[in-house]
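User: Some background: our group keeps a shared notebook of sequences we're curious about, and every so often someone picks one and asks for a predicted structure to add to the entry. Today it's my turn. The entry only has the sequence so far, pasted here. Could you supply the structure so I can complete it?
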Amino acid sequence: MIKAALPHALSVLTFGARAIYAGMKLLPVQKKVVLITREPRQISADFKLLQESLKRKHPGHRVIVIKHNKLSPSYIGRALREMYHLATCDGCLVDGYIIPVSILNHRKDLKIGQIWHALGAIKKFGHLASGRREGLAPRVANSIRMHENYSFICASGSYTAATYAEAFGVPPEMVQPLGMPRVDYLLDDAGSAARRDRILQHHPQLAHGKTVIYVPTFRRGQQVSYLELAAAFDGDLGNLVMLPHPADRTPVPESNGVIIGTGDFGILDWLSVADVVITDYSAITYEATLRDIPLVFWPYDMDYYLKARGLALDYFAEVPGPIATSAAEAVSTALALEDTDYNEFRSRHLDFVTNPDGSLPEENPRCADRIVDALQLKQV
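Assistant: Of course. Here's the predicted structure to add to the notebook entry:
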């Protein structure tokens, strides 16, 4: 009954919001850019680099960063703030689905860019996941105009661009080869070294032995197998860092020398100390390849995940590393891995930010500047 009434309730709320927003659009446009993020804990490296680029290229513009929360009774006040800034800004960038961005009718000259929050897509999302257990019901997706109103969508590779066009439900030409700011972040060797030093100050034990980082995908309503992996890891042979998803409530073991990577460091920061990454369907795959970090894949619940969400690529043909069938095999493989060659993978999945053959560029591609330029902001 509640699910059936949801689309109607959303339609009523949308009608009211559009009426209020129509009045807000009569206000003067200001020299400001609005960045709206779904990141609940800290401003991402992507948004920090976009802020720096905006201040450097458009010093006359203010930059407003808004943390967007999910729909709830307490959201109304925050929604009005988001609507006001959208109505009066010169440009907007988002990293996820943002309710007022998609449901409202904006000025025709307002550029809205979607940078997403992942460098690529292994798992399905957006319209590709609609109707599945971990996706929205099609009627709800239509009611909230999921992923509408973008002027452009950023992609880092041709394979990913094709996936994004389907996931966002847009024509292919709307997906632009702009990359993501985190590409600049990851390819900055000096910055990576500085981040490594900061982490080692907090965790000096990581300076000794091989450091394996486990980055599992979030599973809605399902537990992650942290305990199984921790039990298979011998602390005498290296260090194990676990990076749970912010929304994951699975208990994470604090024994056997396991480090839980929460606090002041983001997932991209932890890559600076990683010798190997173990993952399953996470987009950390793409980031790791830009740092030439060996990858091991442990898709322990593949059958379930294919039904619950689905994958956006041919997993066994595309993932750039060995695939383990048990926690013990994942650990032993990770501890034995040394060098790897990602040129073939990058030439397909990250070719907008690397050389055509997949080799890493000698100069930083400055993706943040590309994205800021795409907003076509008015000069002061």
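Suggested note for the entry: The two ends are 53 Å apart (CA to CA). The mean pLDDT is 92.
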